[in-house]
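Sample entry (250 residues):
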Amino acid sequence: MKSSMAEATFRFYGELNDFLPPKMRQHTLAYPFTEPQTVKHLIEALRIPHTEVELILINSQPVDFTAVVHPHDHVSVYPVFHELDISPLPALRPSRAYPPRFILDNHLGKLARLLRLLGFDTLYPRAHLDDSELAQMAHDENRVMLSRDRGLLMRSLITHGYCLRTTNTAEQVTAVLHRYHLHDHIQPWTRCLNCNGRLHPVPKSEIEHRLQPKTRLYFDEFRLCQDCNQIYWKGSHFTTLQQFIERLRP
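Predicted structure, serialized as tokens:
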């Protein structure tokens, strides 16, 4: 005999509505199901990654992702709070390092370079990795996953992540800085754009033999990546990049 259909009501707040079809946004939703399910399962059945959720209330009581939704329950689901401090309430996930360390999926190479330009530890695997490998790396290194792929962010191994809403790289950077309150943590020209290694000043005399004649003639200040030995100096793109950085500062 088939189980009878049960029903609970859900309300999603704030930017979580980005993930819902337009006709479902900003409304209390009747949610039918055949048997009790965890609240995480029901939220993600609507294609909302758990990484976007900061607070869940069932019948006005805070719960975690493992809580079971029963018939006639009312579930309120909230996104990350930017102003309100909810630290006294039970956390949905373990804490992470701050400033966060990022890992980006296979389609965000430009964003990876800009985050490194700003000084943030940003892993962007050179080899094309599948979702399970990316999720495992995020888990093992306690990194925040940045992606536009909701399916990737719904993997249980990923505890911290952010689903980017735009394909515009500059807008993506702005969104990440806002999401994680990073404007005061910008430290430009401290990481290699190529490999994420740390940059350190290097005397010109030590790398002069590697420089092109005009670079050797016109520039005297250099930085060297401690991992891949890439050399950096204030070349033709420096002014444009510095202006971009200054626009992002508070």
